[in-house]
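In this supplementary section we document a worked example of the pipeline. Step one takes a protein sequence of length 294 as its only input; no multiple sequence alignment statistics are reported here. Step two produces a three-dimensional model, which step three serialises into structure tokens for compact storage. The input and output of this example are shown verbatim.
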Amino acid sequence: MEVRGLPICGPEYAGEAPLLALAERYRVAAEDLDGWTVAVNLTRGGCRIGDPGLRFYAEKLAARAVLARAARLVGPLRGATHVVREHLREPFAGELDVEATLDNVLGKPFAEPGDWVLAHREERRHQVVLMVDTSLSMSGENMAIAATAAAVLALKLRPEDLSVVVFEDKATAVSRLEVADPAEEVVRRMLDQPVRGYTNIAAALKLGAAELERGRNPRRSALLITDGVVTAGKDPLPLAHRFSRLFVLLTEDYKMDPGLCRRLADAGGGDVFPVRAYRDLPARMLDVANRVLR
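The serialised model returned by step three reads:
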């Protein structure tokens, strides 16, 4: 992409203050540089930062901006809960379930310790593996949007309950189930990925299934973000049978394969959720999360 005859990214200046160096790199005024601009440019072709220190600084700045966008979308964090009823073991551990207690004492001259039933709410935990396409077509703004969608999910779950798998020719887990990586670090690792290569959905499903098997919660699901177009690797359909709940977020475009997405979801016991425009992905992720996690 060219801007007034110049490449979109300028030279990488070593030794300057980080903000000034990034402003020079992305050809914007220092006072106009924000974290989202950095997030959009980090994975853009020809814009990758070679200096490790400057790159880490840029990734942290971008990750915070991505999380801020996701937090505005998610709003106040209220985890899904369910009511647990237990026999009284200690006072004030919940509210008296009058109906259940009366059923227990009915016909008895005296209530016994096990007759008293308390009810309280507990968080409904859910473990999720998210698989995100990071092939060459995802570079630039698309990758920043995908990271925002992942951040939406991270804000809805405990850190140890989310694994994020990124894939192109091969698949890599940037976070793992049962490991409590902070959301900001997960986003930073996503933006650190070299966005390149082809789309190997089979590799994503193979690693995603292995990650899901690490989980210890019976409430487990997998989410796959894809347009369904396989350009590398084997037929992914046989691997979908390894999932009990596989949901596909179908990013619609002119070359999509909705048929494959439907077959994957059916084989994995899930469903397909269309995403009309890629910029709508974070909001769609919130909608899907609210359905899957309840």
